[in-house]
What we know:
The chain is an alpha+beta fold. It folds into 2 domains: 2-14 and 123-324, Immunoglobulin-like (Sandwich); 19-105, Orthogonal Bundle (434 Repressor (Amino-terminal Domain)), CATH 1.10.260. It is 24% helix and 35% strand. It has 7 helices and 14 strands. The protein has helices spanning 19-32, 35-46, 50-59, 66-74, 82-94, 101-105, 126-140, and strands spanning 2-5, 148-159, 165-176, 181-189, 200-205, 208-215, 220-231, 236-244, 253-258, 264-271, 279-285, 293-298, 306-311, 317-324. It has a 6-stranded mixed β-sheet with strand order 5-8-3-2-10-13, with no helix packed on it. Strands 1-4-7-6 form a 4-stranded mixed β-sheet, with helices on one face. Strand 6 (208-215) and strand 7 form a beta hairpin. The longest helix has 15 residues, at 126-140. The model is unreliable at 1-19 and 108-127 (pLDDT under 50).
Amino acid sequence: MRHATEHADVATITDVATTDVATEELESVLRGGPFHVALRAAIAARGLPLQRVQHHLSRYGVRVGVTSLSYWQQGARRPQRPESLRAVRALEEILQLPEESLIRLLGHADEHLGPERPAGRPYRSVVEASGVLERLLSELGVPFDGGVHTVGHHERVRVGARRELLGRESQHIVRAHEDGVDRYVAVHHGDPGCAPERMAVRALENCRSGRVRWDHDTGVLVAELLFDTRLRSGDTFLFRYGFDDGTAGVCAEYVRGFRSAGGQYALQVRFDERALPVRCHRFNQHSAAAPRSGRHPLPLSRHHSSVHLVEPRVRTGIVGISWDWE
Length: 326
């Protein structure tokens, strides 16, 4: 029996760049920053899960939580207290970086990010989350490529009155490239502080729910969606599913990673009329360690309280929408 899994469409999770590319990108962001991008690139280049980084810090006599490390590399929080700055200097040694390379970048804050900016839903903990995803798929006996390619994917994200990620819904069209495909494994990656055990998977059209697995620390959840037929190579299949979340705090962006090119992707973010952002932007990212590029303002439809983007043919990497609440 063949299994289908999230292929060109893994939410916020992509392959880690090769060592040479990651090192080159790291050198670039260490020169120009910002701090959170440099820290994220350094962790990715060394291939260390955040738990291991925390363990190494403890050996230096510095106590920093995994959540704080995650927020630092997202740009959701900036280390400012003396203990936090001591941790940054220790990180320079742990990650084998030049002396003062990270501390120096803390003097150049991003204009749009302040120390109290709420944690959003950025691409985060790439190495850690990718390892967790592989483990969860292994528990289900499912490989990354389960025999399908994405032809089209229209994703609708809902943000609630408390500015939280309420959930998302996907209308998905896939084409089988192997015989016998009878299911698809969708992946959801929640915001920091989320509780995947309290999330709900909804099979909405042409599928039914199967097994569900999650990891609390990273907020990764995987869910089987079972078809009522077995696809032959070349067959297309349309189905619809969703995830109910609402378990984390304030959401500031939504990102999606693509492991391979091809297919159309459309992302729509709808806000509660009682809580509208002041501005929205789209952006791209070539890899987990690369700086963001292609930042472009998106007009907010006051009638529908939403913004959207369309990628006629996706490329490997990351695409997303971010917004500012004030």
